[in-house]
Write a structure and sequence with these properties.
Four copies of one chain form a homotetramer. Chain A is an alpha/beta fold. In chain A, the strands form two sheets. The first copy, chain A, has a seven-stranded mixed sheet with strand order 3-2-1-4-5-10-11, with helices on both faces. A four-stranded parallel sheet of chain A has the order 7-8-6-9, with helices on both faces. The first copy, chain A, contains eleven helices and eleven strands. Chain A starts with 6 loop residues before the first strand and ends with a helix. Helix content of chain A is about 40%, strand content about 20%. In chain A, helix 6 runs parallel beside helix 11. Chains A and B meet through helix 5 and strand 9 of A and helix 5 and strand 9 of B. Chains A, B, C, D: One of its GO terms (biological process) is fructose 1,6-bisphosphate metabolic process.
């Protein structure tokens, strides 16, 4: 390892995800292990522009591994999208003697980091923190596993009341562009139908399927709907449509919403965060830059940030088949 | 004890609540203990009219104490509101040799039971099962404690993301006429403001309070809103209003919804259900009718159904004071 | 209110309990509300002797309401049991300008406070924080409700495996002198037998009962045992005895242990803590001393510390009956 | 697909694991999807010998996906280890017209299936259900993810009280031969030390490390110990040793025990179970036998049962490094 890194900064940016605190902790502790100074940046890129820094040592991250959210806070920063903004950020980093930075966030975060590096050559290393699991180059993103469990536990509760009252529920889960949460939480919660952005089921087929299900003796149903489902209707519009076209059902709606972003991370996310933090710091120490840390086949990996932001991870078609079979 | 009861029926009616299964189990096991036959009625009063009965013994309720919902299902039944409907119900009960019935539900359920008893003298005994805690004559209704914890755990998660992003969240909890859930879950979740049906805070005072809170350095806030809050605006309207009048805040909305009705009951609700089932059956055995079982000062009590349905339990004003002080 | 209180201290002492942090928070915020300075004392009475104080304002208790344990830490302090120790404590309090102190803990904590007050007339106010629910003068102690739910959730999990393997489990829960946790968690978890310190079931009756239960077709059983059960055998000895005397059973043991002391407090405990903190500070402001804050019939109450420490709250005999009936 | 399978049996055997019910459900629903009869066998191989069968259709597995344990029950069966026993099993299967069987369990289960197949050529297909994650040929075994989360949640609670009282806790988790649970739960819970069967830390190094940790200012510590840790001491012996050799610590012990086997499965385990059930039935339909279904790099895979039982999956050494760095 080259020994150029004397001080490393870490920030969280974009939508928050469970496990971000665990990832910060890992970056901080890895720095401590290698006797590198570590600096936390508040509110993502905003804090870079405001030089809103805090020195972090092993002790300062005590007790955060199981906390949801990010104690460094997160934000979307318009100023960093301008050359002027990035200039200020660079000056602040230099002034503070920082040699490299770990960026915890999603593709917006990484795009910012790439541009910044291209202009100033400043070493950046990404950690994919987002519940959506929509980043190339890692088996799973940080926070995704926790969000799945939060969604499934909530739907389990909704199922109790759906079943008691013979009702049909449309449950909206997060996922504007990708259906990872919907398909997994849907299968996990035993949903009768799952609507994802990747597949257009067509509303008529949905209604037919619900009718068939009713006839076969099912009295209650859960339909899990990703925010960005292909049918293009909100859960409220779906309810109205079904209300009009399927009289036998008593239809209700539940939008799980932002609770999916919070909560104590699962064991998987805590371990993943710990591994990623180590890899991020060690990669910077090795003189690398512009990579995203991830796991591929459960082994630590580096993916060029350019590739990471290129496309969304595809939905596993096998899961759609499994879902179809499970709801026979 | 008089020994007239040879067969007792039990049903769940109205909105379901966690602990209903535990209460059915208790009725069934108490019957078994006293060697009384027990019959479950499906779908509330609907099942009475359709003679949709099932024999229940100690074994049939194995493993239900920790399940949310009600395996006997619940429904609102219009036919039972007519004299003709109640005639059919009476005939079905008589034909099945049933001597008394335990009604698990809320005030609608009890009102039905009272009318039925007044017409046919059929022994009825109520168990207050509703998450709203709005029934006179019991310290707490069945399901209320569980709903409070479900709400608080969800708001804890929302707080994580609110805090990470310096946001203001309006979180709607159940409670159309009473603010019990809102005030308790609000205090429990450390909400900055709590809007209940019993008090008109006034939207301007709310905005002022949020402004003051912002100035005092608070960067994120949770406002818990009961469905039936006195300001008379939905959480979505509240968001719009604050968006217009409080520019510094990034405002979001979360409607907790039906998940509050489900989930495995807390220890309190399971024990309460067990106690109420015993008391209900033993009261019928003693020749009593038209009472609601409850706990008053944690001792088992009987309240005439007429009183139980008369008014809503009042909000504890002390809690409003506590809430004000906590959010200094 | 008299206005003598300018500065109030708060400490946690004895075994920790969920909700202690929420109670500290409430004391701090109530002080802030009344513009009284508030000082936290670390490690119970130990911190009084070491003048290990920290100034606490409304902000310093942000985010602690849902955290288990006590951030002020707790300890048992031998030095405070000596007159010399208490002299030092008094000097430290006086030097720091503290006018009164809130003691969060159990009967040992209160006994210390009483002696201290009798010697120096220093105003003390108690908040009952202990999972055992064994303090006179309050409906429930702080942490008890959470401990019940922790125990029930753990036993639910054990039940899964007991049932899958047709096993008998002895599950030990906390409660050296009182069976409150055992009887409630036992009923809540649907235990077949519950052994408490208050009643001597006799081991032969236990074995008979298990035999009967086996013959009646039950294939798995949970026996919940309080640490201090009257039979006087540990769960391991019980297992050995049953292994020898009941061959048909495959017997296992589980000691829930210290996890019962931790965890995020339930809504009930958070609200109770908030109410108690307000009452404690306001009572000191009114010139009162030597009381324990509590709720009696869900209304705030003050009980002289002398009475609070006198006896244990009695086990509700009704619960033993309910337990017997439930396990028919 | 060849169409020889008219009737498929499914059983669960060995130690139970969360997700077994979800796997049974998936087998049943996949059979229903392909119009194959499905038969459940109670109590593992025991039920084969007793012809303890139950017909299962899509409806009979409603509501089991989120239940811990196995409703078909599990057992270890000595009779099946004899040629005579297997003869009876074969006769019973033939008599019932069963064409193939899905075995959900661990290596003992698979060994039995292999021998059975070698003698009678009866088609068998394995699903790895065990919390220990010690089976070759799958990324993870069924139930492992849930057990990790159960352990981490329990240790989080223990941490609360450890930290409040400045204590050292030895927490024993499951894992007689492999340290997968210990290393992951240990990292996830932020343990200071983790003792696994694969590495002999040496008790002196442990004591040294704890001493160093104490000197560096850490006041409380969690040491996670796998049942079969290499030091070869039980948690109770470890406590005694440290009590004697490390006076500054107040040491406690907690054995998590059987609760790790129960509980509602995580989303991951529910989805994994659903996928495995589909693959198992479809593989039997394709005329395959003697394979274990699994996921390799998150793609469905078949591993010959012979290989699956050959060795334990190795501990990921990277995790040991991560653990060392995290506890700097």
């Amino acid at each position: 390892m080259i020994d150029k890194m004397k001080k490393i900064a870490v920030l969280t940016s974009g939508g928050d995800a469970p496990g971000m605190n665990a990832a910060i902790r890992s970056v901080v502790r890895t720095c401590a292990y290698y006797k590198i100074d570590c600096v936390g940046v508040y509110r993502g890129y905003d804090g870079l522009l405001d030089a809103d820094f805090v020195a972090l040592d092993a002790r300062s991250v005590r007790g955060v591994i199981n906390k949801g959210g990010t104690f460094l806070k997160s934000a979307r920063c318009k100023r960093f999208m301008t050359p002027e903004g990035r200039k200020i950020a660079y000056d602040n980093l230099t002034k503070a003697g920082i040699d490299g930075i770990v960026l915890i966030g999603g593709d917006g975060t990484f795009t910012g980091g790439l541009v910044f590096n291209s202009e100033y050559g400043f070493p950046v290393m990404g950690i994919p923190g987002t519940i959506d699991n929509d980043i190339n180059g890692t088996d799973r993103t940080l926070g995704y596993d926790t969000a799945l469990n939060t969604a499934v536990e909530a739907i389990d509760k909704i199922r109790d009341t759906a079943h008691s009252h013979d009702r049909l529920f449309f449950v909206e889960v997060m996922g504007r562009d990708v259906g990872h949460i919907a398909i997994n939480a849907g299968i996990g919660a035993g949903a009768e139908e799952i609507l994802v952005p990747e597949e257009d089921m067509g509303i008529d087929r949905l209604v037919e399927s619900l009718e068939r299900s009713k006839k076969s003796g099912k009295t209650s149903s859960i339909v899990v709907v990703a925010e960005g489902d292909k049918i293009g209707k909100s859960v409220f519009e779906l309810k109205d449509y079904v209300d009009e076209n399927l009289e036998e059902y008593d239809v209700r709606v539940s939008v799980l919403g932002h609770m999916q972003r919070g909560g104590s991370p699962t064991c998987y996310d805590r371990v993943l965060a710990s591994r990623m933090g180590v890899k991020a710091v060690e990669s910077l120490m090795e003189g690398k830059s512009n990579y995203m840390v991830g796991t591929i086949h459960d082994k630590m990996s580096l993916t060029p940030l350019e590739e990471a932001i290129k496309g969304k991870t595809k939905l596993n078609k096998e899961l759609i088949r499994v879902s179809d079979i499970m709801t026979t």
